[in-house]
Each structure stands twice: as C-alpha cells, then as structure tokens.
What does this fold into?
Amino acid sequence: MSLLVKNATLPSGKKSDILIEDSLISKMAPSITARTEEKIDASGKIALPGLINTHTHAAMTLFRGIGEDATLHDWLAAVRAVEVKVTPRQIRAGSALATAEMIRSGTTCFNDMYFFMDEVAEAVQESGMRAVLGYSMVDMGDVGKRKSELKICEQFIKDWQGKADGRISASVPPHSLYLCSKELLAASEALSKKYSVPLHIHLSETRKEVFDCLSAHKLRPVPYLDSLGLLSSRTIAAHCVWLTKEEVRLLANRKVSASLCPVSNMKLAGGAIAPLPEIQQLGMNVSLGTDGSASNDSLSMFETMKFLALSVKNARWDATAATAQQMLFAATEGGAAALGINAGALAAGKLADIILLDARAPNLVPAHNIAANLVYSAHAGNVTDSIINGKVVMRERKLLTLDEEKVVERAQKEAERLVA
Amino acid sequence: MSLLVKNATLPSGKKSDILIEDSLISKMAPSITARTEEKIDASGKIALPGLINTHTHAAMTLFRGIGEDATLHDWLAAVRAVEVKVTPRQIRAGSALATAEMIRSGTTCFNDMYFFMDEVAEAVQESGMRAVLGYSMVDMGDVGKRKSELKICEQFIKDWQGKADGRISASVPPHSLYLCSKELLAASEALSKKYSVPLHIHLSETRKEVFDCLSAHKLRPVPYLDSLGLLSSRTIAAHCVWLTKEEVRLLANRKVSASLCPVSNMKLAGGAIAPLPEIQQLGMNVSLGTDGSASNDSLSMFETMKFLALSVKNARWDATAATAQQMLFAATEGGAAALGINAGALAAGKLADIILLDARAPNLVPAHNIAANLVYSAHAGNVTDSIINGKVVMRERKLLTLDEEKVVERAQKEAERLVA
It folds into this structure.
C-alpha cells in the first residue's frame, strides 16, 4: 500500500507532501514525485499527526446522557445501574459508536480500560483505529476475584497484543488504588513488566481518593503506589488532579506519564484543575484523555485541548501558563510517548497516523497562528480526512471502514434496551 | 414566503412539524399539512431555536491568532496595534467571515459593539442574520470626543434601526465605566431611552476594573452605574464576573440582563467564574456571549454553553450548580429577552429563527437526554441547516446567502495586509 498526500499545510504554515508506504511515513518534503496506489490532494488542508486519547472507556458512549447534572453520588448510582446489566453485545455497539465519533473528531489512537474487552478489540479491529486496550481489574480485597481478574487481563494480552496489523496492543489496567488491593496492584505491575505493556490506572482524580488513601495507608496516593513499585515509564496515570508538588516530582522521576482529563474533572465538579505548570516544569510527560462519554460527554480531543489550556490559565491567573503548542504536543507526541507507540509526529519513520482539517473553514481563518486556531477554534467538524496505519479511514468526512448508519442505529437500539 | 419543516425532533424528544409564514412561525404540531413554497424534511434532525450570542465583536475574527498565550498586557498591546490601523474594508471582511462562522455554528442573532459599524451592518444585511449593532463609545473624559462619539452612535441608530426586513436593530454601547466618563455614561442612557434600544456595556470583567472603580468613585461598578441611572431592563451587561451578591441583587432588581462570556474570561486568565448560581437564584436574566475572536477564539455558542456549565460546576464543587436546560435557555430565550427580540423559542408567533442538527451524528447518539447531548456533546459541525427570519440561510451545510469561498479568501487577504 502506498499513498501520497500532496500540498498539505503544517501547523508551522509550511507546505509539505507526505509519502506513505505500508504503515509508515517514508518521506516528508515540499514536493515529492512518486508513483503511488493512492493520492490525496490536501490543498487548503492542514495536516496534523492523529490525536491520541490516552484515557477513555469507549463503550460508555451508550451511557451518554445518563445521570446528567447530578451529584457525584447520584451520577455513580445511575451509571452503575446500567453498568451492572450491560451485555457484551452492547459493549460492542457502544465501542463501534465511539470509534465512529473518534475518527470523525480526529482521534486515531485511544487508550481504553473497561470490561468485555474482546468486544472493544473487535470494534477497534473493524474501525481501522489504533488502540491500547486492557481489562480493568477490581478486586475490593477479594482473593478469588483477584485471581480471576488477573487471569482475564492476562488472557486478553495473549489474545490481542500486536493484533490487527499491529494496531491493537494490550495494557494492564488495575482500576485504581481504591478498588484494588495492594496485592492486585503489585501483581498488576508484575504482569505489565512480564509482557512489557503499559500499566494504566486512575490516580488522584478526587479529594476523597486522596483522603481515603491517607487514612487507609498513611500515605498519599503517589507515594503509596510507589511503595508497591507501580510507578515506571510503563505507567499512565489518568487524571493527576489532586497532587502535591512532591508527588509530581516523584511521578516525573519515575517517568510516569500523566493523562489529563479536564473535561471529565470539571463536569463531575471535582473542584480542582490539574497542576499542569508544575507537571511541565518538573518534566513529567503530559498526554490528554477525554474519559468516557458518561462524564464528558463528547470524545473530542479538540475540546479537551481547549478546556485544559483555558482552565489552567484561569486557575493560575496567568494566560501564559498553558500554550497552544503545549496542548498540540500533549495530544500527539505526549500521547505517543505515554503509550510507547511510534506515532504522534509527522516525520519519516513514524507510523502514518495523520488527519487533515479544512483550513478554509471560516473558524480556522485567518492563518495568523495555525496552532492557536487548532487548539482554540477548531472543532471536530473541521476534520475532513483520517489516515491510520497508512490506510485512509475517513475521506472528505465519509467513513470508509464502518457502515456508519448501521453503527449509529445499532447503538441507539442497544442504548434503548439498556434503559428499558 | 412559506416554509414547512417536517418531522423535526425537539429537545424533549417529541416530533413536530413547523409551519413558517413570512418571518414568523405560524404553527407547531405533530403533523401539519400545508401548501408551502418550500419544504424541508427534518427526519433525523433536531430542531432548536437559533442560538443568540449577546456579546461579541464580529470584525475581530481578523485578529484571531494575534497575541495568543500572552499576558493581558501583551495581548492588549498586540490587539491594539492592529485595531488602530484596521480599515473599514477590513472590518467588512472580518464581519462577513464572522457571519459565515456564526451561521455554521448555529447562531442566528448576535449583539455587537465595535466601530465602522456601517460595515458590520452591511455584512449582516448580506448574510441574512439577525443582529443588534451599536457603535462602541469611548471618551476617556474628553468633551469633544464625547460629543462626536454620541453623534456617531445616534446616526447609526437613525440609519439602521429596523433595517434589513427588521433583522437589524440598533443599540447604544458605551464601552465600559473605565473608558467612558460619567457624562458619556449618563448621555448613553438618555440616548438608549430616547430610541427605546438596548444599552450594551462591559461590566465587571476584571478585578482591576473593580478596584479602579472603587478607587476613583468610592463605589463598586454596579452601584456606580446605578448612581448614573444606567441600570434598566434595556441594559445588557457583558461579563458580570467580579460581582458581589449585593451587586447581583441590584442588577436583578433593575432587570438588567447578564451576557456571560466564560470562554473569553478563562482565556484571558481573569481568574474567576461568573456567579451563575446567585445570578439564577436572584432572578437575573442570563444570556451568553462568545466575546470577540481575539479572546476566545471561536464564535461557537455550543462551546460557550459547555464552558459555562462545566466551569460553574467545578468552581462550586457541585455538579448540579448548572444544568444543560439552563444553558439552552440562556442561549435562546435568555438571549432573546436580553435583546428584546421576539425569538428564542419554537412556538407559534415567534420569529422563525431555527436551526437543525444531525441527530444521527455519532456524538449525538444515543438519545437518552437530547438537551444534555446538545450542551455537552454537540459541536458546530453538527448544525446542518439554519433558518433566519423565515428564510433558509444554510441548507445541508451549504451557505445560501454568502459566497463562502470569496468571504474566506477576502478575510484571509485583508488579515495578511493588516499584519504586513
């Protein structure tokens, strides 16, 4: 498979052609002549590395609109009421819907932890997307449950690691320090190390989590996880809101990646904004996540970039505290680094995960500062094309891998069944 | 002109046909049979009243991307550097660009204060949009300037009030208490009363404004404006961030409308979130604004709804502190009430300002809670059709009133000249 993208505009304003051979970008230059199987004229379009969503629960699209504008207690109750009865068939329907939404909004890769993960993987396989998937483990201190959770998690790794032309990789996701015992957390780290796959965990999302951890373990969440050996360059810590500067320093020293999810945090009224300036100063890798649709409710990474930058600026009374360039980096290179994937940049040798946006959309004009336009003015509807692993999955806003009408209909039907 | 919209889905989930005769909605019912000049099949679409943006500076689209991620001081300097040399031709080009962006993002009416307003009015006239426009007055205490400013403002009212089939109305906008003398403020109120048109003013946007006012006048901004007789049901106060509860009470008692602009406030790192819960409790009318593109940078009211709800929830540690229904109300009925316009609702007798959204877009599925989907998951790209004053201005995402390619090209060219 070879593909030539002509005349794309880069965020720097420079023009470039992009030559893709198989799954990789093989050349970037102002003018490339090559015989390729396919050509895309990207005149009047901006090319970006595909956006990487490092924390979500794709299947939760089926719960979008459930428990809205309710207290955290009522929201949790509403979501759990449907979560306990959700079927594998529904997980598949919700995941397929999520892939359609993500492709449309410029996301080419996502990091997911949930359950019935074979269904999620099959949806990913079909969609053409790239994803890091893991079975989210919870034992609440129950020994039998711990063993069975670890077994399911490991089986998923064996079944799916490297599948779908390498688009799917596996992770080990113990849910959180409050739903997992010390033993499960330690065993998770061992499993992650054994298979050299990411360890994905919720961390310091709420005040309650911090105070409960202090009360139970006499340690704040970060030193607690560190005491169990859980912090390494394989670790992706989702949320990272309620952190002290010392905790940020420890995470940075251990080379943990943050997945910041500002929209979810604000929607659930957590009350804080992640300490992005300290995270950046201390050299911790930053990536971005939307979290699941039940707490966002969109899966748009464009929205997430804008929310993070603006919430940090406002919280610090400092408009320089977060920049458009930092957001773009976090949504691309930062995400790739977090997941250990050779993507996130437009350069020869990188995986060909590329999106195109309509540079002539009125909201992206004029072109004084394209990076700022992308972060502060772009929306999902500006994305016209998506290439993942060298294959075109969306062309001029038409999804090529999915029968979108069917995906939408099925999701709607399954969602109705769920609340019937 | 008559138009029948068939099978639209309302935010309640109910289906309705909408009959439009001339500029008005003449009937809403589950099934209407009528011979009309035009028909729109809205099966699979959500119908909403057109969104009303009650505070913006449309022409500033030409400055989008200037002064990004800079301190307020540097941002102001960067914006002023271009503002002092902007030409009428450029104001026209920027305003036309803004109308294209606003129509595409579901806005049917906006409230604008700026200068070279004849150019803005002509762009509005051509676009088919509805707008309340006024010449923004600034005297800095200079008597001669005051007289000439009032003259320009009054002339604009005489020239444009009720023009463009009633789509354009005029306002009196003294810029703010810090750029206008007491005398100009008082004269503005007299002018607003004389013509029965809205008085549009920036109010309590920054801490500095509050402390400077206290220092200069020994009164906080709201009592200061009240002492000059400026607060009435004709008043639209843009921003309303740094208010005490007593000030909110006074504004509510005087029947002033708030135009909340959360995106601009956060982007400029003002440091606070408007006191929406108190504003609602004390019965003050709430409407929403994007502010200009130099400080947002998009003109999407969908974004503004989400930012306001989420920032208030997070600031108050209370997910019930702002709801999707409240946001939709503020963006439609609240806006219409603020501007004194017979729009903002889908009902017989109201002006036919209506937008349709693609209910089958993956990010708007499933339909558990359509209002929440609209506020928390919709983006500008979901808007497919727009009807303003009974006329279709966008059909299946194609603009019918504007030559969009030309508008975009001209804006880009004029923006380049501006910074050359």
Summary: DSSP finds 14 helices and 17 strands in chain A. Chain A has a mean pLDDT of 98.
